[in-house]
Design goal:
Layout: H1 12-32, H2 35-38, E1 44-46, H3 54-68, H4 79-86, E2 87-90, H5 99-109, E3 114-115, H6 138-152
Parallel strand pairs: 1-2, 2-3
């Protein structure tokens, strides 16, 4: 199926933006259809779709679930709780390089939800040595570059 509701993208710019829309639809489906609620140990990693779209999507999903939860009785908690516990996104593409905007977006999502991702050496991917803007907390950068991945994949983490 085409990745957009209007058909296959003609340009990379359109495809790049449409990836976030596809990811939103997948995350919502995983929650509402019961995949995440019924499989609490499952972790989903979404790659190369960005992440700045997540806060507004989960706010809207939570709001609508509150009024329509009788339709999906298997979703017993706020949808955002399932997403924060079970869904991880990669940092590529990085939607902003402003340190304050980036830090606030990460705060809204939850820093544990993000994994380092790069299409390097593709033309649209950042050089890994300059992946994040100066001014981000060193501990946060360490979590993004490897700590969160180790926890997600349980590498060197006590079970």
């Amino acid at each position: 199926m085409p990745s957009t509701s209007t058909g296959w993208p003609s340009f990379f710019a359109e495809e790049h933006v449409a990836a976030a829309q596809s990811a939103q639809a997948q995350v919502m489906s995983l929650v509402v259809e019961g995949v995440l609620p019924n499989n609490p140990g499952l972790r989903i990693v979404i790659v190369e779709c960005g992440f700045a779209w997540l806060p507004s999507m989960i706010w809207r999903l939570d709001k609508n679930w509150k009024g329509l939860r009788q339709e999906v009785p298997w979703v017993t908690r706020l949808p955002s709780e399932y997403v924060r516990e079970q869904v991880r996104l990669t940092t590529h593409p990085l939607e902003t390089t402003d340190p304050a905007d980036l830090a606030e977006t990460i705060r809204l999502i939850g820093e544990e939800c993000l994994l380092w991702g790069s299409g390097y050496p593709r033309f649209d991917a950042p050089d890994p040595r300059a992946a994040f803007p100066a001014g981000l907390d060193d501990g946060l950068v360490e979590r993004l570059l490897g700590g969160n991945a180790r926890e997600t994949y349980r590498v060197g983490v006590a079970a």
